[in-house]
Amino acid sequence: MTCKQQICPITRLIITISLLIFSSCAYFNTFYNAQLYFEKAEKQRLEKAGESIPPAAIDAYGKVIEKSQHVIDKYPDSKYVQDARLIIGKARFHRKEYRIAELLFNQYTELYSDDMEEAEFWLALCKWKLGKPQPALEVLQSMLNASNDNDFISKIHLAIAEIYLETDKPGEALEHLVLAAETNKNKNERGQIYFRIADLAFRAENYEQALTANEEVVKNTPSKKRKEEANLQIVRIHRLLGNWDKVKSLIKSMLLDNIYSSIHGDLELELVKLYQMDYQIEEAITRIESIKEDYKNSKTSAEAYFIHGEISLYDQWDLVNAEKYFGQVSREFRQSTFTSTANLRAKEITEYQESLTEISSLEESNVQIKTALDTLENDSLKKVQEENLYISELSISNHLYNLGELEAFHFKRQDSSMMHFHRIVDEFPESEFYPKSLFVLYYIHFSNGNTESADIYSKRILEELPSSEYADYLRKTLDLPLDSESVQAMLRQGELEWLVNPANALTFYRKIIHEESQSETAARAAYFLAYHYDYTFFKQDSALKYYSWLNDNYKDSEQAEASLSRYTILNQTIMEVKKDTLPEEPVFETEQDSLSNQEIDENKKTEVIKSKVH
């Protein structure tokens, strides 16, 4: 045998071995890359725990699927195929492709019946995401009882916590998050879990637990951002717990440390809030002015302006400056979380000031009207002036109620707000705001523990307004028998009558509107009548009448908003049909639904008055 002949088999062997090694390396490298992409995606997902998955993580999961599927298709006999099938299912799940993930995990359990534990875990999660949280919880609980692997136990607790969070059971979720953290060996994952615990505990106002969890976040997380957020939250919690010396010490040390430079503005704001809580208003304002200068056009300066607005409004009762500071919030940082509330407060202050101006103007006008009435001898002119006076007084009561409501429930000035409600009760007993004012006076006294004064107003409501919804509320609160003529009683009678005789039931709903037109129940009654005249009895004229009444009297109610589209369409349709024949006054189709002439006249008068008042 020649040398050349001897070399050929050796060469072929080397080539074969090389090809085998290359092939093995190829599928190993492909799956290794898939794992790297999966780890990258998991890190990004965990950092956003509780939030939507970042687009970058979604893309990384896509790469996981692509590379793992390549291993399965090109190297079906590879030892990596089993892991590739599992990792594809996980990636599909995190990409919210739950049906496909469920199919893949079911296939996995059929192919690898001796190694199904993890696939069954993911199948349980698919059940949850496909709308079956309770069956998922039952499977997970069963797996929890059977497992001895701490890492797997931690993963199960974490999944159970996620399900409880989604089903609005934060207490149960918190318990399982704590167990997940205690059984997890991975320091990074432990830090992420404690971050979730801290957030939930803080929202539940369990500040001691939140404090401990944040301290664990600082110990465990490698994320600089998470450490900063946790340290900032530790400062906040100590402030809320009243550990003010501790807060000052922490803030001062962190303000001197450049490691925390990105949260220095937040720390200074915490110092401002500490001054507020300690009623050191001048010190708070001094610090705020410094923050405004040091952090211009940032979320920090926006919050500083917001706090300054609150101090001006609540502590100093300086409406001009409060409005100015609230208005500056969005100019400093449009995306500030305080923008919406600041704009609302500025709008409320404007409304308050407008009501003050209107009251002053109307009172001056009333003096002139009363002077004119003393000298007028012409009865018709006298009647006109009396009506003008009546309209003016109704408008004053409207603005007084607005002042009282804003002070009591928006500006934290309940004591001074009562002055406005008292004035309505004493001077404007004919006003629609008289019942509301009586009730608010009862409510404020009752809420503040002034039971003697609360009893006086509750008795007045029950005696003077026995059929009102306010009287009904008090009867329920005081455990008194319900009045058969009350609004709620009429509503219940109407609901029962509707079951046996729908046409007769309408009488009760019309009665509510006629007798208790200023109650919120009247809005419900009007919507009921409009809807059923429209869709049950097909009397569009009558339906339009009640849609119109609802829109005119309760345009901001849920019922008016729900019916606005139909009201607009119906109004346009009827106007088109009757444009050549429609009389000046509406004609209702049935005697049962029509009002008496006297009632129509009274309603017209009321509508005229209300339109002028508003």
Topology:
Elements: H1 3-47, H2 55-74, H3 81-94, H4 98-111, H5 117-129, H6 133-146, H7 150-166, H8 170-183, H9 187-203, H10 207-220, H11 224-240, H12 244-255, H13 264-277, H14 281-294, H15 299-315, H16 319-332, H17 339-375, H18 379-409, H19 414-427, H20 433-447, H21 451-464, H22 469-477, H23 487-500, H24 502-515, H25 520-535, H26 540-553, H27 558-578, H28 597-613
Distance between the termini: 116 Å
Tally the helices: what do you get?
A: 28
Instruction: Outline the biggest β-sheet.
Output: none
CATH class of the domain at 487-613, named Mainly Alpha
Q: Architecture of the domain at 487-613, CATH level 2?
A: Alpha Horseshoe
Bin the helical content.
over 70%
Shape: globular
Strand content: under 5%
**Mean pLDDT across every amino acid position:** 84
Low-pLDDT windows of residues: 17-24, 582-614
What is the SS-derived class? mainly alpha
* CATH fold category name of the domain at 487-613: Serine Threonine Protein Phosphatase 5, Tetratricopeptide repeat
Number of strands: 0
- What is the assembly state of the chains in this entry? single chain
Compute the CA-based radius of gyration. 36 Å
N-to-C SSE string, H for helix and E for strand? HHHHHHHHHHHHHHHHHHHHHHHHHHHH
